[in-house]
Design goal:
Elements (H helix, E strand, L loop, with lengths): L10 E5 L4 H14 L6 H13 L4 E3 L2 E5 L10 E11 L9 E8 L3 H15 L4 H7 L3 H8 L4
Length: about 150
Amino acid sequence: MTLPPLPDSAIDIAVRADDWRAAVELCGEALRRSGATSAGYTGRMVQVIDEFGAYIVIAPGLALAHARPGPDVLREGLSVVTLAEPVAFGHPHNDPVSVLIGLAVKSSDEHVHSIAALANVFNDESVIPALAAAPDAATVRGLLGVDA
């Protein structure tokens, strides 16, 4: 199982966000810049959290921002946003978040494969703090085992 490419345009390092909503918007903007999604996808990612809560905070310090496949997903894509200051999403155990992974997929099968590939990466609990401290896009790609 492989993850989609992660170009420089889909990575933002040590950025500031006032709250979880702003952090997810940064993640969605990175997906849009990379060509994986159109602008509407970001709003749908926020809507998922508004509707279902902070279940996207999947591990201490890590959120997986995503929405269902839809016409605003142009191709499968990943984004990574690291925050200069962590933000709370309202998760009872895994807040605050310092790393967001954005995921856009065109089908349910792609979703399952990408989630499984990410789970393999994050089985190593040292990856989240290493991503949070990553100084550049090459380091982020190396930690996730993806190409540009």
